[in-house]
Protein: VOC domain-containing protein
Organism: Dictyobacter aurantiacus
Amino acid sequence: MKIKLTTVYVDDQDKALRFYTEILGLAKKTDFSQGSYRWLTVASPEEPDGTELQLALNDNPAAKAYQQALFQQGQPAIMFFTDDVRGDYERIKAHGAEFTMPPTEVTGSTIAMLNDTCGNLIQISQLARY
């Protein structure tokens, strides 16, 4: 089995698409609508055929409550991995992103946390090399 898709709920799909592509540097993979429903995904440009991240509208009350609870508890909705967390922190910050935690060493990795402006916290992690 392979993981091909995961979902993050957002409060505005257009704003989310701009953030995830222009600020984070992901690439739009799929974008189509049927009536009021919109299927929108992004993927890593390093793995364009890898796992997709669906930017799903949080118009479902359960999804909205889940998203808000994670945010209020300071829990990331998504975790991305990188080989250079400090470099990505500087690059993303230069594009105007709001970080809630700068690169910080924790057991086994260095992490940074930022607000995606669409209701979620994102954690960027670099595994420690021993």
Q: What stands out?
A: DSSP finds three helices and eight strands in the chain. The two ends are 30 Å apart (CA to CA). The chain has a mean pLDDT of 96.
